[in-house]
Specification:
296 residues; 18% helix; five-stranded antiparallel beta sheet; seven-stranded mixed beta sheet; disordered N terminus
Length: 296
């Protein structure tokens, strides 16, 4: 569940290179990719594993459908996920709502501030939500989020809805990456600040700087695939957009700025053909590009 982030956005493209064409294992330009195909398989398996092992209090009994109303949606989760990969189970537990929340506070990293409180009585309401994220995100999928919705059924009975939700990342196919034997990289920087600044550009020829740029770019994750909508920030202070161009004989690879300040959506164009994959935005990558620009 990511909060909107204020980040610098970069664009990548390959620039003039005198070396022999690098070997490539990707499909030839003009072929097609199914976004997130391999990663989606891994993400689907992970979602199934996590919902199977979702922690529930002792004595929990699974229900075929929701045992009470108002447990039909992920009210507590506002992140950007592929809802087709969300996995859900329903339960009844022999605990009061307060005891159920206390169990999750004691046995999981759940953020119990998401639980609803009765302000007048200064105590837990019998209806609410708990959430936490794991650190088990990978190159294939985003960090999974756990959501528990609960509602009182009686003095010693509570209904639970448990959800695991995550998104597969776009596959980093070989033609989404830059070759490693480039001899020149072009960087163009443009400010998004309230006070416009003149564009800054440079041709980087230092092998060490080129190697850092290529390694950072090739190490970017694929963007979350098949997600609907996401929140964006607004320019505050120094915010810059970088365009980096890698060229080698017969090919040009461009990674555009994506959607500035949204932490995602960096598009790719290979030899004039828009690739279906997009990449994550990354402060780490932006810093490498800025470092090369400063050193040039």
């Amino acid at each position: 569940m990511r909060a909107p982030m204020l980040v610098a956005v970069a664009v990548l493209v390959t620039t003039g290179c005198q070396a022999a064409p690098p070997a490539r294992t990707s499909p030839a330009p003009g072929s097609t990719h199914h976004a997130g195909t391999a990663n989606r398989t891994l993400a689907t398996a992970e979602a199934a594993r996590l919902i199977r092992d979702f922690p529930v209090p002792p004595g929990a009994r699974e229900q075929a459908s929701t045992p009470v109303l108002r447990l039909q949606h992920l009210r507590a989760f506002d992140g950007d996920v592929d809802r087709s990969l969300t996995r859900t189970r329903f339960w009844t537990v022999p605990l009061s709502a307060r005891a159920a929340v206390a169990w999750y506070a004691a046995h999981t990293p759940a953020n119990i501030s998401g639980a609803f409180f009765d302000i007048a009585k200064k105590q837990l309401s019998p209806l609410g939500d708990l959430t936490w994220e794991t650190a088990s995100g990978s190159d294939a999928y985003s960090a999974p989020a756990y959501v528990v919705s609960y509602k009182r059924r009686g003095p010693h009975a509570t209904a639970l809805r448990t959800d695991v939700t995550l998104a597969a990342r776009y596959d980093r196919a070989a033609d989404t990456k830059a070759p490693t034997n480039l001899t020149e990289v072009e960087i163009d920087k443009q400010a998004l600040n309230a006070t416009p600044a003149p564009p800054d550009s440079a041709r980087v020829t230092d092998p060490a700087e080129i190697a850092r740029i290529v390694a950072a770019f090739n190490g970017l994750h694929g963007d979350d695939a098949n997600v609907a909508g996401f929140a964006c920030g607004s320019p505050v202070g120094e915010v810059d957009v970088y365009t980096v161009t890698f060229r080698w004989p017969g090919h040009i690879l461009v990674a555009d700025p994506g959607v500035p300040l949204c932490d995602r959506g960096r598009g790719l164009t290979l030899d004039g053909r828009k690739l279906p994959q997009t990449l994550e935005d990354s402060d780490t990558f932006d810093n490498v590009v800025q470092g090369a620009l400063t050193a040039s």
